[in-house]
């Protein structure tokens, strides 16, 4: 049986989960290469990701095992911070090729809101935290069948993680300013994650379950209030002139409404029972170390020897992610709305 975690251990886990979300969302996109090492990163970027993943993570793990569709819809809600916090879906700080539809930029919505944040800000950090830092296994076995096949054995998982590391490292070159910053970012963030994970696994001896490490109802209320205040503060301070007309607001509200309904429906659907218990953390730290090294080296090599092709790699990545988001959203909606047998 799992032990009840100490409050101190829960708080440390929250920080690690927030750090995972921050690094995996910001660093591969080169939006912020050092989000855990700068004043802006620690006071603005980290709170955005930590508060979102803790509030939404608490919501989806109240009933376990967790359907992947539930994780995905919660991830979309996560990604919608790019509306009222950053205004990116209305007016990004880069040139856009496709005009607005309904007051929002469709390409940015597909890639950032429906793919990047659900995967890299939410699902992947939640899975990595459970696999490396807990003794439970509530998330992995309910992923889509194609993903389970890719990760069906340690060897397949190893090669899939290396392939993802190469793809993300190459994608990073689109926005990375220099080779030196690519190397420093990769190794500093990687060493921070590996080091803190190692300390957790050697100092926190009891085996905890993921849901037990999430915030209590009282803590969740406080975190939700803090997140709401952050929306208000950043909504006012970050690029307020980018707020759209009524069409842009209406489109985002509709997306919020539909996503919340789908999440509510998905939370109510039964989930196949998976094996939730293991005797120790289910993955070795070496399984995380090598992909982090490969990611950094891929970014370094691409930036060094293919410096003029970063935009090409980036555009290919954006197109692939846009297509994947359409497939994922359609599949998740069909599965969620299909009557339970």
Question: Layout of SSEs?
Answer:
Elements: H1 7-26, H2 39-60, H3 68-79, H4 81-84, H5 106-133, H6 145-150, H7 154-172, H8 179-203, H9 210-213, H10 217-237, H11 246-268, H12 286-305, H13 310-337
Structure description:
The chain is mainly alpha-helical and 341 residues long. It has one domain. It has helices at 7-26, 39-60, 68-79, 81-84, 106-133, 145-150, 154-172, 179-203, 210-213, 217-237, 246-268, 286-305, 310-337. The longest helix has 28 residues, at 106-133. The relative contact order is 0.18.
Quick tags:
341 residues; mainly alpha; 13 helices; 68% helix
Short description:
By secondary structure, this protein is mostly helical.
pLDDT < 50 stretches = none
Tally of individual helices: 13
Shape: globular
| SS content category | mainly alpha
Secondary-structure element order, as H and E? Answer: HHHHHHHHHHHHH
Counting DSSP E segments of at least 2 residues, the number of strands comes to 0
> What's the N-to-C terminus distance?
32 Å
Strand count, sense and barrel status of the largest sheet are: none
Structurally, the number of domains stands at 1
Specify the helix fraction band.
Answer: 55-70%
Q: What is the mean predicted local confidence, pLDDT?
A: 90
Return Rg in Å.
19 Å
Residues in β-strands, percent: under 5%
